[in-house]
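== Sequence entry ==
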Amino acid sequence: MRLHRRHRALSALLAIGASAAVVLAPTVAHGATDLAVVLEERTGIHEPGAVVAFRTPDCPADTLGWRVTNFDGVVVGSGTDVAAAATRSLPAGVATTPGIYRLTVQCGAATGSTRLVRSAGPATPDPFFSFAVAGNAPDVVRTFSALGGGSYRQDLQWQAVEKTAGRFDFTPIDARVDRWIRDAGVPPLFVLDYGNVAHTGGSMTPPDMAIPAQRAAWQRFVTTTVQHLRERYPDADLSYEVWNEWNNFHGRFPSTPEAYLPLAEVTFHAIRSADPSARVVGPGVNAVSQKERDWMDRWFAAGGAQWVDAISVHPYSHPWAPEQCVNGTGCIEATLAALHAQSASHPSASGSPAPIWITEVGWPATGVTGVGEADLAAYLVRTHVLAAQNGVERVYTFELNGGTTGARTFGLVQDTPTGFEPRVAAAAYLTMQRTLAGMHVTGGSTTGSVRVVEFSSADEQRHVRVIWQNTDRFTDQQVAVPLPSNGTLVDPFGASKPVTPTKGVLQMTAKWSPRYLVWQD
């Protein structure tokens, strides 16, 4: 992840118009901070029928008041609980419709709140829907699974496993990775990256492939690491990304693809020799602005694709929407279309076109490029749909969990002292994952600003059209969508209703946040 702002003039943001440029203020994780409201379900995600149980550790009184509001702020339940119990539960019928809710509790003069998600059902893992994660606590893994994560990405830094030259210690890595691979069966994407004080003079300084001692030390790190992980997880689906954002942070080396490729070639051969079944992924660079796109053009031209099994990019474009191209800065949609075309004409290590993996993408909640809750939800879904339409094989959202302040406010769920609090984007992501997992794109259309992308199941029996508009977050647009039979319209947070077409067409509205039209043959 880049920690600096993309170098874009503020005037560009102002020039694109108020309807497209408004950046909503981020929503704080809790309403008031003087009363902790702790959900027993620490992920904050509740399946149908699951009881919403909560505690208020700082409330000594037996009686407390509570209310539940939906995404629109409408009260869907309220009451007074007089039970003298440590754990209390919402009554039957409250917050049962799929969606995101806020539970607010009052104890005397103190008030606190937390958000929760009611899902429409469990999610089935699919590697297309993957995450970068922070930490490995059981709650992280459970939240990952609740959202249908299919693969996870983590750094495996040279300095972390070889603190003393020639002595490798994987104990800390094993403790973290066991929980994902051995216990949960989640396929990993490891990022082999950064320097080593003992060999390169700095923990962030890359090895110089022109210096034999540094080349040999890096090869030894890669070979030892890959062999260790294959021996420890003999049946796992293992993938390795070669470095992280060379064109963004690279120590003393030039940020050029020409400087990166010697490292990529050496690493490719070391991985292939140590574990022929492992995937090699790269270059893992930012790839949206014109300068970044030029970097990728040179990488392809210099033969970079021959050293990978999958092409990885980080198409960050915040605060803009994925379809919103700004002069000189590009956009996610155009980037993916260009990469898809380039990969077709530049063979990978297998001799065939390499699939594209987005190994980081997201929007922060804070800072000049931060976006609001509703925009984050809409942009992530739209990015996944556009990625699928352009043949992307995996998308690793950056990131699953994170804080509410500082540089890393990208998380779909926010870290709290007692678990995780889901953001609006978590509810939207879960709806998307449950609706589209295991499906493939079969068509799409653009009419003005209205987008329609069609997916079908592997047996071609279940179909979904994803519909949205990208002009104005506040104004819906009428659209006629083909619908061959009765179907179901699913809203961004999972609530659904039956719909009936007239002469094979459904008249509906296209909104800023995608909705899903589902039917069966």
Summary: The two ends are 43 Å apart (CA to CA). The chain has three domains: 38-118, 152-178+187-357+369-387, 441-520. The longest helix spans residues 212-232. The chain is about 25% helix and 30% strand.
